[in-house]
Amino acid sequence: MAALLAPLFRLLLVAGLLGAAGTRAAYDPSTAYYASLPSVAGGDTLKTALHNLIDGHTPVSSYTPGVWNALRILDEDPANSANVLLLYGGDSRAKSLQDNGTDTENYWNREHVWPVSRGMNSNTDSVGGRDLHHLFAADKSVNGRRGNLPFTDIASGGTADPEAPLSLYTSSAYEPRDADKGRVARALFYMAVRYDGSDGVSDLELVSSTSVSGAQMGNLSALLAWHRAFPPDEAERKRNHLVDTLYQGNRNPFVDNPLFADRVFNNDSPFAAWRRPHFTAAELANTAVAGDAADPDRDGLPNLLEFAFNLRPRASDAATAFASPALALLPPAVAGGAPRLGLTHRRHRYASDLVVRYESSVDLVTWAAITPAATSVVYVDALTDRVTVETPLTGARRFIRVRVDRTAP
């Protein structure tokens, strides 16, 4: 086992069995899907592992009518099944107004977030040209104005897109509305990992600039900031799941596990990737604020435990269920005729650089490692499980605590 760094503890002392076995949400990957990935490594090592996982998908049979038919399902307006929701503007547009090659004001068509002119030889029927993870319904005029422009924040001098007024563009870049920034970023992250020079598509690369050429797209630093600021919502998670199960048989890993973005493109550990949305660059360099044992919100949970429990390091989580249970001695549960002590806590599903263990004590002074007699897991949200462990209750009283250690990369 990798070397263990200094442990952090939280006394979660609860007698009695809490929780029951649960199932994963409808849009989650199977528990086995990412099992082959390195738990801590980032950078090119993780990028290669993710590429090998999502490579070789089954593309839709054709650009026409295959992609058209898929987008009618993937981008369907949940409030009106006769319409699709459009990228960049958010309009609900009748499916019947599919681009027929004439009208430019009212029709919708197929937007390649990674332009086919940048690495796919302008071939919409290439594997990349038909990849649904970066294809979205969009207003035809808006699609034309975006063209093959790279994405970035436009600080000044931008023009509001007439049919998508919350999106801006210049002659050299495009900035989508906030509601689309996260999924645009994750679509580009997917493409940069999925395509490596095979499949008739060039080796797609993201660069930290809007000065792009060939098979490049940008701006990576802006895309990463958008990804952190606008994480996947249920609609994006559903779309990712439908692309996988209805069409291609592969997933966008950056939708399933947002930590992958900084792990791949900044070579972060999972813990370092988790910290980036919560702290400024200056704070990240200050261990008194962003270090393992720091507690910037003074809620009694140091940062490493906030990560382990998938909580917020800059806001108190005292009211969050199973984050900091009150000290209590309750009547013990009886399982199989023997009394047992139960402890329930949250767990970040993708905290893969942590080791979570349990210890028991009768006096709160001397602790010994235990192997729970039973463990159950209940789904909380896309990144969080609720874990309940049980251990036999011997003697007049017993306490359990959870111990968190960080493994060295």
Brief digest:
Helices cover 25% and strands 22% of the residues.
> Helical residue percent?
25-40%
Helix and strand pattern: EHHEEEEEHEEEHEEHHHHHHHHEEEEEEE
- Write down the Rg: 24 Å
Low-pLDDT stretches are 1-5, 12-22, 325-331
Percentage of residues in strands = 15-25%
Q: Structural class, from helix and strand content?
A: alpha+beta
Number of DSSP helices? 12
Kindly, what is the distance between the CA atoms of the first and last residues, rounded to a whole number of angstroms? 11 Å
Round the mean pLDDT to the nearest integer and report it. Answer: 89
**Strand adjacency order, main sheet:** 1-18-14-15
The figure for the number of domains is 2
For the sheet with most strands, the description reads: 4 strands, antiparallel
Describe this structure in words.
Helix content is 25%, strand content 22%. It is of the alpha+beta class. The chain has two domains: 1-34 and 270-409, Sandwich (Immunoglobulin-like); 43-265, no CATH class. The strands form six sheets. A four-stranded antiparallel sheet has the order 1-18-14-15. A four-stranded antiparallel sheet has the order 12-13-17-16, with no helix packed on it. A three-stranded antiparallel sheet has the order 2-3-4. Strand 8 and strand 9 form a beta hairpin. Helix 1 (43-54) packs across helix 8 (259-265) and helix 4 (178-194) packs across helix 5 (220-229). It starts with 7 loop residues before the first strand and ends with a strand. The relative contact order is 0.17.
